Each structure stands twice: as structure tokens, then as C-alpha cells.
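Deliverable D4.2, example record:
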Amino acid sequence: MWVNPEAVALKNALKLWVTERSNGHFLLQRRRGHGDSAGRITGLLVGALDTVLDSNARVAPFRIVLHVPESQLSWVIASGGTIEEVMKHWKWLDQNLLPYMAVFENKEDAAIFVQGKVKGLIAEEVLGGQAAHEDDPARFREDLVRFEQRFGLPQREKLVVHYSCCCWKSRVPRQGSLYLTTNHMAFYSFLLGKEVKLLVPWAEVTRLERVSVGVLTDVIRVHTRRKHRELSMFMNVEEVMMVMCQLADIALRRLLDSGGLTLDQALQDSTNITKRVLEEQALRQYVLSLFGLPRGEQLQEVMSCSLWTPHARCHTSGTVYTTDGYLCFSSRQEGQCALIIPLAEIVSVEKADSTAALPNPLIISVRCKRAFQLIELQQRDTLVEKLRERLQELHWRQAVIRGHEQRKKTTVSSTPYYTFCYDTVQSDEEDGSISISDKALRHTVLSNTLLSSFHPSQSDASGTRNTEQVRERLWQDHFSEFGRGVHMFRSEKIRTLVSLGLPESLRGELWLHFSDASSSLAAHPNYYADLLEKCRGESSVATEEIERDLHRSLPEHPAFQSETGISALRRVLTAYAYRNPSIGYCQSMNILASVMLLYLREEEAFWLLVTVCERMLPDYFNRRVIGAQVDQSVFEELIRERLPDLAAAVGDVSPLASASLTWFLTLFVSVLPFRSALCVLDGFFYQGIRAIFQISLAVLEANAAELSGCTDDGYALIILSTFLERVRHEDESADHAEDAGASQHLNITNLITDAYEKFSSVSVKQLEQMRCLHRLQVLQAHEDTSKDNALRLVTPDVSLSQEHLSDLYDLFKTEHFISLYWGEGVCRSAAAASSSTEPYFLDGAQFKSLFELLAPWPCGTHTDTLAQRAFTLLDQDRDQRVSFSEFIHMLDVLYCEELNEKIRLLYRLHIPPALSEDSEDSSPLKSPVLSSTRPLYVNLPNGERKSYGEQLQQMLEDLNSRKKDQEKPLPHMNQREFIQFCKTLYSMFQGESSESELFQAIGMFTSLLLQIGEARQHSDAADEQWTVSFQQILASFLTEQVLVNFLERPVDLSARICTARERQYQERAGVLMIQHT
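Output generated by the structure prediction step:
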């Protein structure tokens, strides 16, 4: 490859290099000791030195040097690992540069000219290759060339980053290079003359963890299903861990059935993934989680600054983040101070004069006549310009929407109502879907909260009223000082107010502001009403599930004992299922929505449900509730980390983590008394999922003593359930002060305060990092389940062992992935074909590759033709893909079935649809010479001679008498198809030790069948075409013992699988590389 010109002292270099070619300006040199057969002392020493050096310090054995006569300095301009590689550059120099060197009178000018040309060539390669978008293109290009030379993967394999590290094998460290690509983790080492290559697909990585091994404290352990590998000696282990985790997460989301997990648009095309893109995505994900922003928001500017905070009476240093629709601020210490300002609320962005006390100030004014001051903005002008551009675009969109709504009002009645009630009687016995009845009662969308109309029975204690008034007064004071709305300051003071419980009169409003659902509501006027109109009359699986769960939602509350509350809940859930069909409806959504309807208007409750499902709890309510399972895995690790004594006493903490699944899915609403659960919801809408983690840890800590002595998982669940039932709100404690067990009640405020104080170090950043790591384990666990289900489906119908089935499934999946890595990726997983129970499929090219590796009888050049016919035969529904079960059933016949079933399969491969009338045989194998004039006799054991016709007739009668199952008769085979059938048999026998006997037997076999076909053709006047039946072919085959022995000879499937596993990558990668060059 061309290298940036590097000066070398030629005099000293001659001791280590041998000049192979030279002209007036260039030298082609070979490293001493490389390729020497004479074994001189100097060459042996240099060769030994290069052998001992590791892969990072080794020097390329060939190079081209730019030499200026009568000068001690020269420049290395090209290097290579082989003489052929360097000779390409030598010929280019000889043809394109050497003729023009004589033009320069000054030799130094000629050297500068050559150096400029070489740098230009490197720049062209960089701009046209993967290195174009890297921070250091020249260095990345060198790493890319080494990676391609060492592993030989197609150019579509996108290298992301390279690190120098040490890989441990047993207790032996090997220093080398770690290459992280979009699909693989690759390690290369050359030490003491031994070369080591490791290539691990991300799809096989089940877990990544940082561990301590001996004296090494920062070791990354990479787990796969077969083994684990340990990597150490990184300069920045946190960076490496983050990149590896991100790449594995992206690969699993893209390749496996992720149950509805979405992949960011910037990461959809793997060729766009770079280290910088990964860093930006990690920061973006953190910002979205920290502030609870919509998942579609793109991060724009990130700047350090200071914000004037009234509660602190000073400027608080931190970072300002801007996205497409928000301006957010977070203090350096997470949680100390935060601010969220939707751009729709901003009136103006103005620059103020800088002073010594207030450098680069920026004033942001919002609609409620409040202003925020930012200072110490290093790029203030850029930020102001970008914000004004986005504000101008936003105001234009709002004007368009207002005009559209105004036009709608002129054509629509000013007092619309919506009919939305289901008939609970099924309209069709065969179709159990729920449909709308024309006679159903009409219900108007609620404009008030359900709590304003329905009040649960409770005592009207004066103490409760006084406490409520105190809370309201505290919040009114807070509003007057810090503002009211989404853009209120989020500080320790407001967190304390939230922990005391929100006032009933303000709860709905504050939920909307804390979650920012109010912004979505304001940005989409009449969206909910239009959605109800669209989904009216629609029926689906989601509507059936909703109807079943309606009366299970807070059944003890009077609001949901009436048709008014039930109808409102039905409308909200059905509208959301229509809005987001990828989620539809999931259990526990009804519980959350019913609580929201108590404190919010119907449209507000809908948007708050949207915010919870799509922003605050992403991936919780998809097809496999992946998000909730990931958080259970994270919670399990937090138990070990934050409650080590409990973890040590219990041993296996997974039952405790599993018990919390309901806590996370329903946000404690289904396990706590209602008033106490409302306080948890208050904290959730303010802090997000972080609050649920903290409260869950506090619950386990409060019961640590009892749980430590518990030996039964069921009893542990009883302990936790009993504890949660005793957690009461102070108002409830006052109402039930006369209860006998009131003294045992725990105040929910105390529980929440303890959770905040003891587990405040559980940060959003930590949770996001842990989620990324544990998502690998959850997705791989689902993949294992999919594999078990696939094997369970095929096991009863085949004779292959479980070990063979498992290995074949892995080969099948790998073939599917390889095409997605470097091919066109036509066949997608179950995420793209959710209607099928099969997780993976193969197209024609993929099937052909795997068929060639696993076929029991190699057919040489005829294998491609046979593979194509097998694919056509198995593709019964003509969708150009074959499932795992179809593939396995074919292999089971070839390896395990009786002789007649093997011949039946071969027969079917040579008749339609496998062999069509217009199909041509692409194999170069000549058609066999068939003759029907040979004398046909068979020698019987008793010494008698019997004609093949008489013997064949007797065998047909025996076969018919022994036939147990009445299968559908196969169509007859014409002469063209029979010739192709014989051609396949000839190709199967080539290279066999008994090749001559097999060819002689197949000659007898074909001659007999030709005579039978001719006799049938002449005897049957109605059928003038030459044909033979499957029974005739089978009987004729059985007359030749050599052929029978060949097909009944056992083939070692384990050896074929082992060979296929070794060859699959290299051969398939080579084919795809040729196809795309």
C-alpha cells in the first residue's frame, strides 16, 4: 500500500534491507531474513528479530524507497506483505512517474513532486474508502489495510475502530490487535513465530463484562455460547467497553428477532457506523433518557455553560443540550438542577452585552413572561443562529397547522360527538373479533376528569383536608418563585415536594408537565378526536384483549363500575392501539390508563399514555416486553451491587428480581394501596424509571433480614407482598387510625425518602450503560428460546439426534447472517415475517452454499444443479425461501431414512416442479451413453438364470404386497427427466473407490429401464411418450447390490458438520467478495 513518505537513513537501512530492484530514483527492497535460503548470520538475526516482535511492531517485508542521488536521506513511499503487492506499485511508478523525472533539473524538486503524487494517491483512496469519515483518515487507512490482509473478509465488512490489547489463552497473554467491525470482533497476534486469529460474530456474543483476573483489574471478558475470552491492557478500557457493547447491541437488534426493538435511523445502514457516530448516539441516548424526550429527537448542540438558578441564588455550571424541539440544561452533578424548555414555548433568544461577571450571556424568554439566563457560552453566536433557525421553522409549521384547523372548523359542526361503544356479543361465531354495534349507546369524549364525578368512599377527616391545603400552598409558593409548566426548575426542593405527595387538585397538571406530555398535547390539536373517528368500527386482536381487560382495571373504584369510566378507558386504549400497531395493547396498560383518567381529561390521559409507552418506558410494551426484561436483569445486578449482604445470604437473586416484574410493568399500582401507589407515580413522572429502581431497592432493603433467612421462593414473595400491603399514605393512616394493625403500617413518604437518600447514586447514565449490557443477555436468551422451539417442532418428525439438530440450526442461522453481513440480505428474520413460526430462512444462493457443505454425496460440478432443484422442490409456496424445518426434513431423508425414501427424493428432484420443461442443466457433465440392446440376465443363488424382466416383475409384486402406507403416487418420468436422473447418479459415483463397479451397475440399471420404457411405449397405444414409474426405478435399483450398498452406506454427519463449520465463512465470504467486486 502507499504510505505517507517517511524519511529513513539509507546507509543504516542497508544493514536490514536488501535491494531487489533499482533505477535512478526508486529502490525496491526486501527485508533481510525474509525469503533467504542461504541462512547468512545477518539474515538469520533480522529474521529472528521480526519473528519475536509482536504484530504491532513487525515491519512489512517489502518496501519501495524514493532515493535522491548523492543524498543520505530517502523516503519510504510504499510497503507490502508480498512481492506481488509491491510490484503493482513499482510498475505504476515505472509507467506514470519515471518518464517525467528527467524534466526536473533539481533532484530535490523531483523528490518533492513524487511525494506530492503519493500523498495525492493516498488522499484519493481515503476519500473513496471507509476512512473518509474518520477523525484520522491516514492512520485508519493503514489499520483497514492490515485488517483486510489478515482476515480476508469482503469490503462490505465495515471496520469501526482498532485497539492494541492483550488476549489471554489459559494463562498465556498474547499481545496483538483488536479490530471491531459492524459484524465481528477480530483479534490478530503474531508472537514468537506463531500467528493467532480470532473472529467472533457479535451475534454469538451472549455477555460482556469487566472483571479482575489476578493482578489485572480492567479485563473485558467476552462470553459466547461455547467459551469466553479475556482481553486486557487497554489504554482506555471504558471506551472499548462502550464501543463493544454498542456494536453488539446494534448487531443483535439488526440480526435477531428483537421482539419489536427499533434501531435508530442513523444506524440502519452499517456502512455509516463510525466511532464518532457511536459516541454521538451514546450521548443522544443519555440525553433522551435524562430529560425524557421523544425518541425521535436528534441531538444538535452540546455546550458547557452556567445557568442562573433562583433556588440557589447563583449561576449553576453544567451543560446545555439542544435537540430538534427542546433546549435542556443539566448541572454537572446529575439531579442537582435540570431544566427543560420546549422550543414551542420560547418567544425570543437574545444576546446581552458581556461583562466580567457575566461573560457571553444569553437570554431566553418563554410565553409565561419568564426569562432564563445562560452565561459562559463559548460558541454563543452559533447557538443563537441555530436556535433562531429552528424557531422560525417551528413557527411556520404552527401557522400551517392553525390554518388547517381553521379550515376544518368551517366544514365541521362546532359541537362534535363520537360514538365509541362495542357490542359484547360476537357477530360471527367463526370470527371471534369484537365489532361495533349500530344500536350501541353514544358516548361523548370526557372533558373532565373522572375524579371530579366519582369519589371513592372515604372519611372526610379534617386532618386530611388540612394536609391537602398545606401541600397546595407549598406548590403555589413554588410556582410563584420558579414558574409553572414544563420549564419549571427541577431541583432538590421540587424533589422534596414530590416525595411528600402531590396535591389531588394539581396531580394531573403536574404529571403532564413533569412528563412533558403537555407539549405533545399542544402540538397535536384534535389529533385524538381524529384518531377516534378513524378507528371507529375497527376490530383486531388488540380490541379483543382490551374488551377482556376493561372490567379488571381498578374494579374497586366507582369510576370503573360505571359505563362512563369503562367507555372512556375503552376509547383511550383503542385509540392508542390504532396509533401504534407495533405495540397495540399490552396488559398493564389498562391499569395505568385507568389511573390517568382519574386525574386527567380523556385527551390528556391519551397523551400521557403515549408518553409513558413511547418515551418513559421504551420497549416495555412491545411484543416480548423486552424493555421490562432488560430492567429486571439490570435490577438483579443492582441488588448484588447495592445490597451485597442480601445477595450473599440469598445466593440466587433472580427470583427476587423476577418478583419485581409487576412492580415495573404497573409502576407499583397493582401491588400497593391506591393512595400509596399514587405517590410512586408522582416520583416516576418526575424522575422516570430511576425512581422505580430506587424504590424497589428500598423495598428489598427493608425486608433484607427476613429475606436472608428465607429458603423458599414462594415464601419470599409472601414477605414482599405483605410488606407492600402495609405501606400506607399518611392520609390513609389517619383514616384508619383505629385499625388494630395501624401501628405496623409504614408511611409511603418515609419509604420514598429513604429510597432517594440511600440509592441516589443510581444515576440515569449508569442505568443506560447497564441496559445496553443486559440487553445482550435478554436478546440472546430469547434467541435460545427460539432455537429450542424450532428444534422442538422438528424433533418428532425426524431421526436426527438433538446434537446434530442443534449444530445444523447454528449452521443454518450462520448462513442466513452471512448474507445479511455481506450480501443483499433478502431473507429477514421473524421481525420481518412475523406471521411465520420460523425465525430464519434461506434464499436460493444461501441454500446452495449450505447444500454443498452438507450433502452426503459430493456431485462435483453437478452439485449446483442439484442444489437448485432441491431448493425448488422444498419451496412449495413459491416465496423464494426455505425454512429450517424444510431443510432438516430433506437432510433427514438423505442421512437417516431407508433406501426407498432416498430414491424417492432423488426421483422427485428430476420431475416437475424441481425439474421444469424449460430448465437447462448448467453442469459440464456429459450425458451418459444409454443402450437398450444389451442381453439382460440375472444369476440367482441356486444357479439358475432369470431375465431381468421376469425378476423385475417379481420385485414389483413384492413391493406392492409389502406397501404399508398409501402415499400419493408420483407422476411418471419421461425420457429427458430420466437422462437427468442418470446424470445425477453418474456424478455421485465419480471419485469412489468402487467407481468401475458402480458405473457398470448403473449401465445395467439404465439399459433395463430404457427397455421397459420402450416396451411400455409400444404396448400402450394411447400413450405414445416414453415413461417409467417410480416403482419401476426402485425395483430396478434394488437389482444392483452395488448401488444399494452405496446408498445405504452410512455417512458421518458429525464430520460433515465439523468441516462445514470450518469452511462456511471462508468459502461464502470469498463468493460474496467476487460477486461485489
